[in-house]
Write a structure and sequence with these properties.
With 113 residues, this protein is mainly β. It is built from no helices and ten strands. A six-stranded mixed sheet has the order 2-10-9-4-5-6, with no helix packed on it. Strands 1-3-8-7 form a four-stranded antiparallel sheet, with no helix packed on it. β5 and β6 form a beta hairpin.
């Protein structure tokens, strides 16, 4: 199993980034997928999730209305569109297959002027 995140980087406050996660080695369409983030010294936080077939989404309170999660079951990818980013959202973002122990290696997002 592999989950490979991409799309992180440096962005100014108020800017946007789009993260992607490419999945392989399992039946992607059978799993809900989620994005988490973890700042140093803090617990891992759920950012957004999307169910397997009906693509029902859920979001952390702090990102609702600014972030959008989506999935492409034909290409085994899940994406996270992040708008109006804030400096306090600087951290590593991880892709995760729900109800599994499968995590990506993470991608760094830095929001700074």
């Amino acid at each position: 199993v592999q989950l490979v995140e991409s799309g992180g980087g440096l962005v100014q406050p108020g800017g946007s980034l789009r993260l992607s996660c490419a999945a392989s080695g399992f039946t992607f369409s059978s799993y809900g997928m989620s994005w988490y983030r973890q700042a140093p010294g803090k617990e891992r936080e759920l950012v957004a999730g999307i169910s397997s077939v009906r693509a029902i989404t859920n979001y952390g309170v702090s990102v609702e209305g600014r972030f959008t999660i989506s999935r492409d079951n034909a290409n085994n990818t899940v994406s996270l569109q992040m708008n109006n980013l804030k400096p306090e959202e600087t951290t590593v973002y991880y892709c995760h297959a729900v109800r599994s122990n499968w995590w990506g290696q993470g991608t760094q997002v830095t929001v700074s002027s």
